[in-house]
């Protein structure tokens, strides 16, 4: 589907907290205070901060299934702020994969979940991240409102 507007922005991770739901083999690694199973599922609570054409903050609930190759990632993100000058809230759905050092995801606006100027928001973004993002990650949303 094509949309008539494009919002270019960057996002940074304000916080990330991850906990194990299930650990298949009892094998994994620990980084900081977090244990990551070699095979298993985790739940992550994440906060993002956006700047640019998308300006605001969000909270995300991710489910991540760790395994030897590309691990599936599912998420729902509640955004609050402004997109292309339209203020309100909306929800993004994430469907992606991650492996050692990279993430790719399709992000779509969940219809019927917007408020204010984002009530009728429709749109999507393709996200591709490689390596650490000390200066943030690029986020380009194709969208329509109204």
Give a short synopsis of this structure:
This protein is mainly beta and 146 residues long. The chain contains no helices and ten strands.
> What form results from the Cα inertia axes?
elongated
Strand order of the largest sheet: 1-4-5-6-7-8-9-10
Mean pLDDT: 94
Distance between the termini: 16 Å
Which class do the helix and strand fractions yield? mainly beta
Report low-confidence residues grouped into runs of 5 or more: none
Helix proportion range = under 10%
Count the helices. How many? 0
Order of helices and strands: EEEEEEEEEE
Report the radius of gyration as a whole number of Å. 16 Å
Beta-strand portion reads over 45%
What is the total tally of β strands?
A: 10
Characterize the structure shown.
By secondary structure, the chain is mainly beta. Helices cover 0% and strands 72% of the residues. It contains no helices and ten strands. The strands form two sheets. The protein has an eight-stranded antiparallel beta barrel with strand order 1-4-5-6-7-8-9-10. The radius of gyration is 16 Å and the shape is elongated. The protein starts with a strand and ends with a strand. The model has no long low-confidence stretch (mean pLDDT 94).
Q: What's the structural blueprint in terms of helices and strands?
A:
Layout: E1 5-23, E2 28-31, E3 34-37, E4 40-52, E5 54-66, E6 71-83, E7 86-99, E8 102-109, E9 122-130, E10 137-144
Antiparallel strand pairs: 1-4, 1-10, 2-3, 4-5, 5-6, 6-7, 7-8, 8-9, 9-10
